[in-house]
Input
Amino acid sequence: MSDFQIDTQRVRTNFSHAAASYEQHDALQREVQQLLLERLDFYLQQPERVIDVGAGTGRGSALLKKRYGKAQVIAVDAALPMLRTAKSHASWLKPFIRVCGDATALPLPDHSVDVLHSNLCFQWIDDLPALFGECVRVLKPGGMLLFSTFGPDTLRELRAAWAAVDQHSHVGRFLDMHDLGDAMITAGLRDPVLDVDRFTLTYSEPKALLRELKGLGATHADRGRERGLTGKGHFRGMLAAYESMRVDGRIPATWEVVTAHAWGPPPGQSRRAKGGGEIASFSIDSLRGSRRR
Output
């Protein structure tokens, strides 16, 4: 598994600054959202509570409320300005609740969620045991987790262009589908199904891609990134290297998108422990022992 570490404060700051511009650049996010909604066809019940983790500006939350009009839909995001923007998608006919919180510490009771949805948020979390452990904690037995995230081929052209001029970290790194699947199983999630799709977006020039990343808040947030200003010579060199990748007059950018779903485990199902072995948990009420008199 990759040893990268995310600067969570930087992520929160980046997305807070991008709240006003996000929806000018979110064409890919909307396309991936449709892939996630298709997975909801596997969920055959009527949910009582649906949460949208990393809800951003609330487009996905509104679609979930439209699909499940009788359910309580909760939009959760760590960036408060995003949630303020999301208010525009919450109509009085189809309202949803907005809550500021982290994916690894959801402000919800145990086993209280029927559907946990997250569109292109989990790539900003490096502690997968904490992330999927929290999903298991809040999901009801048989509840559905569905999410999308970016895979390691994402922005490979931009990464290669930077590598042509120096060896510093300039582009975020993302986990492989197999690492995600292993972490889901270890956490106790049932029957995970993961798929990979690759999208290639094109731009008039490399700077247009960089403007889009900034407008989305999706800029570099690894702790290992260079903290000083990038020299003009290095920046020009990166642009020149990227220009050499033009195809049919356009600059390509690859996005590897992992979509997945799984199910909340039944009470008492064991999960792998960090040091080896397995752990199973039961509610006190389920233990009907006898005692000697």
User: Anything to note?
Assistant: The longest strand covers residues 190-203. The chain has a mean pLDDT of 89. The chain is about 30% helix and 20% strand. The beta strands are 49-53, 72-77, 97-100, 113-119, 139-150, 190-203, 251-263, 271-272, 278-279.
